[in-house]
Write a structure and sequence with these properties.
With 305 residues, the protein is an alpha+beta fold. It contains 10 helices and 10 strands.
Length: 305
């Protein structure tokens, strides 16, 4: 293992644990310990909760969990009972006093996190949250059903589209800055005619994070639309985002009176080509192409409505 990378993770751990110390539900002399606060959190969000499930969620051994619950019960914050379906199972629920205690802890935590975020400008807050999501995706349990949203661009989104095209295609396929320049010109052309009702741009989000985009613009004639700038972040692959973007673009063109649609791509973009083919596009023209650095085969695909 690369020692520099190990050192970087350890440095982040030291920084992160320091931040967590500030954001804990209370200081060292608080009325409730962090484990007690976490128990109240779980119980407030699922009432009642089997003790075995609570132990699994908080990774507690049986002995420690029993002592922890006994302390909370003695303070009147929780109540334990036997399951009516299975007398061998013990359930635990918060009392009214327990709910009131959690409400205080929750507000305290909210205020502290708000104070942390308030130190940063909105753009830096978004960067921080995106980095947290990235860490969660890589080292935590990835959600099986992330929420996909397609929306119009907001300020900053179109610049992101240009940057991500340049970065991703440069890293994965060796495209040079001429490709990024082309993307920038397409985006600029879209902005110049943004009030045109027969064109549209979509940004795809998974759980609130930008992961892709696509545009529908006018094609070579009034009856033909053009699909442009399909973008998909590696983190979004396998969630059907590309298919959804292409479907949205095609349906928009169909609904706005176009009789067909065309697009340009290159042969090495196999994943995108598969999506186009599944949507009904057909390859109609090929030619050698090397304007972006590597030697490529430029392709034109068409779909007739």
């Amino acid at each position: 293992m690369n020692n520099d990378r190990v050192a970087a993770v350890r440095a982040f751990n030291r920084l992160y644990t320091g931040v967590i110390g500030v954001l804990d539900e209370g200081p060292a002399d608080a009325e409730y310990s962090l484990p007690e606060a976490r128990v109240l959190f779980e119980l407030t969000h699922q009432d009642p909760l089997p003790v075995t499930d609570l132990r699994k969620r908080l990774d507690l051994d049986a002995g420690y969990a029993s002592r922890l619950l006994a302390r909370l019960e003695s303070r009147g914050l929780i109540a334990r009972e036997r399951s009516e379906e299975d007398a061998r199972r013990q359930l635990v629920r918060p009392t009214e006093a327990g709910r009131a205690a959690f409400a205080v802890l929750n507000q305290r935590s909210t205020d502290r996190i708000g104070g942390l975020l308030g130190r940063f400008a909105d753009e830096d807050q978004q960067r921080l949250l995106a980095a947290m999501r990235t860490i969660g995706d890589l080292v935590g349990e990835r959600r099986r059903d992330p929420v996909l949203v397609l929306r119009p661009p907001r300020p900053g989104d179109l610049g992101w589209v240009v940057e991500r095209h340049g970065s991703l295609y440069g890293r994965e396929y060796g495209f040079d800055d001429r490709f990024e320049g082309l993307v920038a010109r397409i985006v600029a052309d879209f902005v110049e005619t943004r009030d045109d009702p027969r064109q549209a741009f979509w940004i795809a989000e998974l759980d609130g994070e930008r992961v892709g985009g696509i545009a529908c613009t006018r094609g070579p004639d009034a009856d033909t639309a053009r699909l442009r700038l399909l973008l998909l972040e590696p983190s979004a692959r396998g969630h059907g985002v590309g298919k959804r973007l292409v479907t949205e673009c095609v349906e928009f063109a169909r609904a706005h009176g176009y009789r067909g649609m065309e697009l340009s791509t290159v042969s090495i973009l196999t994943a995108a080509r598969s999506i186009y083919r599944a949507a009904g596009f057909e390859l109609v023209r090929e030619e050698d192409f090397a304007d972006w650095g590597p030697k490529l085969i430029d392709e034109t695909w068409r779909l007739t409505f």
